[in-house]
Amino acid sequence: MAAELDRMVETFEQELRGFVFKKVANPHDAEDVLQHVWLKALQQQDKIADVAHVRGWLYQIARHTVTDYYRKKRMEVPREHVQDEPGPVTFEEADNENLGCASYIQRELQKLPEKYQLPFSLYVEKGWKHKQISTHLDLSLSGSKTRVQRAKRQLKDILLNCCDVEVDAYGNVIRYEKKRVCCA
Known about the structure:
Layout: H1 2-23, H2 27-43, H3 54-75, H4 98-109, H5 114-124, H6 130-136, H7 141-162, E1 163-167, E2 173-178
Helix pairs in contact: 1-2, 1-3, 2-3, 4-7, 5-7, 6-7
């Protein structure tokens, strides 16, 4: 098995490196993501039945790992960085304006019915899994998922009524323009 993994790394290292570095702008983070790809490949190598499909299998792992990276990054926004008024975009946030929208969305979240607010906050802000939320709030698993989904949909509708929003493939806000004063 180790020889197979060595052969995979040798064959696909440069190709996957290019793929990951195109998706993750920070080179240090991209290197970490690439290491996670190889770690996952090592852990899951018994799942690949047909060696002819190794390339596609590795790309699938890479896509999922990049997606996980952006999900984790989205959840890591410290509360003290969420401002009441969006400030100037810093160099680190230049292509991602999620923080600029965060304070407005946070205010609008407080206006949602409590049955949607709490599951959404536990899921997004605290990073709880639906099973934890359903147990904590005495809901079914699908009830937890539904409430989080409905809160997301309502917040999205509120934001789209207020602003013209452009997002990237990972759901990060890359540009927004206010239609009205409501989100100022």
